[in-house]
Amino acid sequence: MVKLAFDDIWRALDEIADPEIPVVSLVEMGIVRDVQIQNDAVIVSMTPTFAGCPAFEQMRAAIVEKLRALGVERVEVKIVLTPPWSSDWIAESARAKLKSFGLAPPPQHGGNVQLFFPDAVACPYCNSTNTRVTNHFGPTLCRAIYFCRNCQQPFEQFKPL
Ligand SMILES: [Zn+2]
Asked: How far is the CA of 155 from the centre of ligand 1 (A)?
């Protein structure tokens, strides 16, 4: 077994794209919570963005495959649902990428969230706040669909969770 360093493992995990938002990694999204090395096994703890996330199997398989490629023989992926995933865990670097992907990044809420839908969401294309929500539930439960009155473009906002 190769000698593994935490840095190498985190770097490898940071190369795994979020299956729903391929411009950001699972690490940047705060989905990968923890890495532990026990003897010849690597244990990765992850928290899906919401329970029952359909992309979960895909993420688990990608983590196993990635670490096997590093020479890890035993990979264990643990699902941690408590505390639930929070949009506050999204790395600062990922917020700009979400925006370039046409997704308005969620505001930081510091744990005080009422599953609110902010009225003044800035359009990721033109930064105008002259926007309105058209659908509280977008293609996934994590997103809401907005419409920008300024540039006449629909866009999605990542809901603060
Ligand atoms: Zn706009």
From this structure: 8
- Mean pLDDT of residues grouped by 10 in the chain (161 residues)? 79 93 93 92 89 75 95 92 87 90 80 58 90 72 82 85 67
Å from CA of 58 to ligand 1 middle: 33
> Ligand 1 centre from 160 Cα, in Å?
20
Query: What's the length of the chain?
Result: 161
Q: Is 158 helix (H, G, I), strand (E, B) or coil?
A: strand
Cβ neighbour number for residue 31 with a 10 Å cutoff: 25
Measure 89 CA to ligand 1 centroid, in angstroms: 26
Q: How far is the centre of ligand 1, averaged over its atoms, from the C-alpha of 132 (Å)?
A: 11
Query: Is the separation of the CB atoms in 121 and 104 below 8 Å?
Result: yes
Beta bridge partners of 146: 133, 155
Q: Which domains does the chain have, with CATH numbers?
A: 6-79 (3.30.300.130), 100-158 (no CATH)
